[in-house]
Write a structure and sequence with these properties.
By secondary structure, this protein is of the alpha/beta class. The chain is 38% helix and 14% strand. The chain has 15 helices and 20 strands. The model has no long low-confidence stretch (mean pLDDT 95). It binds flavin-adenine dinucleotide.
Length: 552
């Protein structure tokens, strides 16, 4: 390594999604002298879950429409009571400010005939979803650059640096040169999104996932290894997705009144949640879809023919113009006309996510983990169902905490040791003694997730997953990777395997059934509020992960 390979920055942000960008903007706003650096593995105007286009801010407490308390109630319902309200409260209180900020930058929030924002229901209770149009991610990226943050694209972060008990920075891989670079920093924000490549999708394509496929739980692996705690890994989420089209739609469809129907044309949610119907919590809706298929009443589809034509126009404009422009061609080529044809849906692969699930790093009201100076935000933070607004609210909150502290250079960051270890690891991958290509390695553990970790779960299956993948953990440093890009992909797969094993451990620990489909234990079929209405906290111990009930 030469001297230029180690750089100092006051605030290091890992991941340039809405959470990371908003943190950078807010930090520069509060203190323009602060040196703020975003390390992003892709390119911030298009990267992450939001890069594909978003047609709504899912969770905003709009004055006069909803209240903070109602929002907390809604989150409590979707999480089956297993959440820490601290962060959800911060999100609720800040969310309208985020909307106004985005509007000021040119993000469109169409108004209804009454001149007010169009606010729809998506959560099982209350109205918090605000219709949105425009190129959100490009606009946020533009503002990030304008604010004066340094953005380093194509720099995946592969390790964290400690400074004693505190955080000391991170190491990134420069994808163009293949060089490792150490960034020394007193404050580091982890916001690399959720973990998409955990289960295998029904198409078998490794990257054909519901969530952004290159966000694969790296924040969780690195944060845990640095001493931070994880939670919510037993909440193995699955969404529903249009068959053969890799893009969501369920939120757009449901909030505009589409019905879920089975192959007989019945609106089947009345069997599973007659009061809330399609607005039932995602885990209940997911189980209903699977039950209908199992009972031979599939295929399941969304139906629109009962909706007035102007509502179907609205759905089409939301999906075709903002969320998924290629869906227009897909429907056209398939001859699907929403005015008369149902759209078949399938359940997605298992994934883990903080912002539309429960999994994530445990943080306080400012997103700080138990490692001083190490923060998390967005889908990497356990901020249940915080979605986009949650990511940006917590990005702001982290920045405020960082700006308020005087940035102090880490005294003795373990830079050299980290870099040497990583350089040796890269050399080992170049030799690639395993003789198994990365895609086969990844395919195998994800297939095992489908067989043993995806619900219905049982102790025997979960334990089998842990046993079968133990050898894969031993072998993973020998997966062949010949260039920087391949090394990045290996790192993603290792993080995916790490997350899948944590999901198995947490699922094994929670000896009850909860969250509808997401944590269905056939050997413990009942919900047990007395013992289990609590988060499970996972922390690294001297002999491996230690799992505890939060309220024990
Ligand atoms: C299909 C789908 C539809 C959605 N629709 C909506 C919607 O309409 N409304 C809404 O409110 N929410 C929606 N959401 C949720 C919303 O997109 C996310 O909650 C939000 O984007 C999270 O922001 P984030 O910054 O935490 O993560 P992301 O947006 O995922 O960004 C993470 C960033 O980290 C980068 N990264 C990953 N690993 C590394 C690494 N090792 N080093 C450096 N960089 C890295 C990625 O490239 C990416 O830029 C949707 C999500 C999905 C999956």
């Amino acid at each position: 390594m030469n001297e230029t390979d180690s750089v100092y920055t006051d605030f290091l942000i890992v991941g340039g999604g809405p959470a990371g960008c908003m943190a950078a903007i807010r930090a520069k706003e509060l203190d323009p002298t602060l040196d703020v650096t975003i390390l992003e593995k892709a390119e911030i105007s298009r990267s992450g879950a939001a890069g594909r286009g978003m047609d709504a801010l899912n969770n905003v407490v709009v004055p006069g429409v909803g209240t903070v308390e109602e929002y907390l109630e809604a989150v409590e319902i979707v999480t089956d009571g297993v959440f820490d309200p601290t962060i959800s409260r911060v999100i609720a209180e800040r969310s309208f400010g985020i909307l106004k900020r985005l509007e000021g930058w040119g993000v469109e929030f169409p108004r209804g005939k009454d001149g007010n924002y169009i606010v729809n229901q998506f959560h099982p209770k209350g109205r918090f979803l605000v219709e949105m149009r425009g190129e959100l991610k490009k606009i946020i990226a533009r503002e990030t650059r304008k604010a004066g943050a340094t953005v380093m694209n194509r720099h995946p972060v592969v390790d964290l640096i400690k400074d004693g008990e505190r955080i000391g920075g991170a190491v990134a891989l420069d994808l163009e040169t293949g060089r490792l670079r150490a960034f020394v920093a007193p404050a580091v924000l982890l916001c690399t999104g959720g973990a998409a490549r955990i289960g295998l999708s029904n198409t078998g394509y490794l990257h054909g996932t519901f969530d952004c496929p290159w966000c694969n739980g790296e924040s969780w692996k690195m944060g845990y290894e640095a001493g931070a705690s994880l939670t919510g890994f037993e909440y193995t989420a699955r969404s529903s997705m249009t068959r053969d089209f890799n893009g969501a739609g369920q939120s757009t469809f449901i909030r505009h009144g589409a019905w879920l129907v089975n192959g007989l044309g019945e609106r089947f949610m009345k069997r599973y949640d007659p009061e809330r119907m399609e607005h039932a919590p995602a885990g209940i809706r997911g189980r209903a879809i699977i039950e209908e298929e199992k009972a031979g009443r599939g295929p399941v589809a969304f139906a629109f023919s009962h909706l007035p034509p102007e509502t179907v126009d609205l759905i089409e404009s939301a999906v075709f113009d903002v969320e998924r422009p290629t869906m227009r061609d897909y429907f056209r080529n398939k001859g699907i006309d929403l005015r008369k044809d149902p759209v078949e849906v399938v359940m997605t692969e298992v994934y883990l996510c903080g912002g539309h699930g429960l999994a994530g790093l445990v943080g306080d009201a400012w997103g700080e983990t138990r490692v001083p100076g190490l923060f998390a935000a967005g889908d990497s933070l356990a901020n249940p169902y915080g979605f986009l607004a949650g990511a940006m609210c917590m990005g702001e909150a982290v920045a405020e905490r960082v700006a308020e502290r005087k940035a102090m250079r880490p005294e003795d960051p373990d830079t050299r040791e980290r870099l040497e270890r990583l350089e040796a690891l890269i050399e080992r991958h170049k030799t690639g003694a395993l003789q198994v290509p990365l895609r086969d390695f990844e395919y195998k553990f994800r297939r095992l997730v489908n067989e043993y970790v995806a619900p219905p779960k049982s102790a025997r299956k979960l334990q089998r997953f842990l046993d079968e993948t133990e050898a894969m953990v031993r072998d993973q440093d020998d997966i062949p990777a010949r260039d920087p890009h391949q090394f990045m992909k290996v790192f993603e797969a290792k993080a995916g395997l790490f997350c899948a094993r944590m999901a198995a451990r947490a699922s094994l620990f929670r000896t009850e059934s909860r969250f509808g489909l997401y944590h269905e234990r056939v050997d413990y079929p009942e919900k047990d509020d007395e013992n289990w209405k609590t988060r499970i906290i996972i922390t690294a111990g001297p002999n491996g992960p230690v799992l505890e009930k939060e309220n024990a």
